[in-house]
Amino acid sequence: MVNAAPLIVSHGRVRAVADTRRGGSYRCRLVPGVPVKRYVWRILVAAVVVLVLVAAAGAGVAWWFNRGPGFERECDRLAALAATRPGMVVADIGAGSGRMAASMAFRIGPSGRLFATEINEVLLQSIRERAAGQGLSNVTPILAGESTTGLAADCCDVIYMRRVYHHLTDARAVATSLYSSLRPGGRLVVIDMWTPDRLPFVRHGIPAETVRSGLERAGFQLERQIDRWSPIDYCLVFRKLVREA
Ligand SMILES: C[S@@+](CC[C@H](N)C(=O)[O-])C[C@H]1O[C@@H](n2cnc3c(N)ncnc32)[C@H](O)[C@@H]1O
Fold it and tell me: How far is the CA of 107 from the centre of ligand 1 (A)?
C-alpha cells in the first residue's frame, strides 16, 4: 500500500522528512529551516572568536617576551648568568636592532664598552640611532662578516648571542673568531631556539647539542645548560679557560 503523506521526524530543531513514495523504502531529507541556519552562524561566530582569542594570546606572549617585562627580566637573567659588572667589555653578536645591547650597555655603565655586531648594515644604523637616542656613549657598532665577528683578539670579558647561531652560514669560522675575541676566563652565553621537531610552532632553530659540539671544537668549555630559558629558547654558558703558565 502506498502511503502518500510524508512522515515528519523532529529531533531538536532539525527536521527530517521521510516519504514512502519510491518502492516502499524510506528516503530522508533534511529540511533546512531557520533554526539550522542559526546554528551554522553560531558555530562560525564561535570559531572566529576562538581564532581571534588564540591570535591575541600569541601576540601578547610574544610582546611580553620580546618587548615587555619578560624581555627586561631576560636581560637581568643574562647579566646575572654572565656575571657582568660596571666597567666590563661585553659583545652582543648579531645584535639586531640593538634592544638587548642597549639594556646591557646601561648595566655596564659609561666605564664599560658594549660592542654590538651585525652583518646587516641597515640594522647597524638602527643600533647607532638607538644608542644615540638613549644617550648611550658606550656602544660601539661593529660590522661583522659571514666568517668573523669583526672583534679584535682578547677584547671582551663577556660575549653573548641571542637567536643568532642558527643563522650562521659559517659557524665553524665564527666559533674560532669568538674564541679569539674572548679574554681567558671570560664567558660566552648562547641563547637559541629549540627546533620545530621539539616545538612544532617555531619555524627555525638549532639543536643545543649542535651548538655545544661546534663551540667545544673551537676550545670553549660548557659551564651550564638551561633547557627552559624561555618557552622556546635554551641557554648555554661556555667558559674560555685561563691558559696554563
Ligand atoms: C633573529 S635576529 C636576532 C637579533 C637579536 N639578537 C635579538 O635577539 O633580538 C638574528 C640576527 O643575526 C644577524 N646575523 C646573522 N648572521 C650574522 C653574523 N655572521 N654575524 C653577525 N650577525 C649576524 C642577522 O642580521 C639578524 O639581525
Answer: 21
Question: CA distances (Å), 87 to each of 28, 64, 98, in order?
Answer: 83, 30, 19
Residue owning the nearest CA to atom 11 of ligand 1: 94
pLDDT tens digits, 40-68: 888 999 999 999 999 888 888 777 777 77
Q: From 104, 151, 164, give the residue whose CB has the most ligand 1 atoms within 8 Å, as the site to mutate.
A: 164
- Please give the model's pTM, rounded to 2 decimal places: 0.80
Cα–Cα distance for residue pair 194/189, rounded to 1 Å: 16
Which CATH number is 68-239's, of 3.30.565.10, 3.30.70.1450, 3.75.10.20, 3.40.50.150? 3.40.50.150
93 C-alpha to center of ligand 1: Å? Answer: 7
Domain boundary assignment for the chain: 9-64, 68-239
CB 137 within 8 A of CB 105: no
pLDDT of residue 18: 58
- CB-based contacts of 151, cutoff 8 Å, min separation 6: 91, 115, 117, 142, 177, 181
CA distances from 105 to 89, 91, 150 (A): 9, 10, 19
Mean pLDDT of the 97-116 span: 97
**Cell numbers found for residue 70:** 619578560
The tens digit of pLDDT for each residue in 219-235 reads 999 999 999 999 889 99
Pocket test for ligand 1, best of 119, 123, 203 (most atoms within 8 A of CB): 119
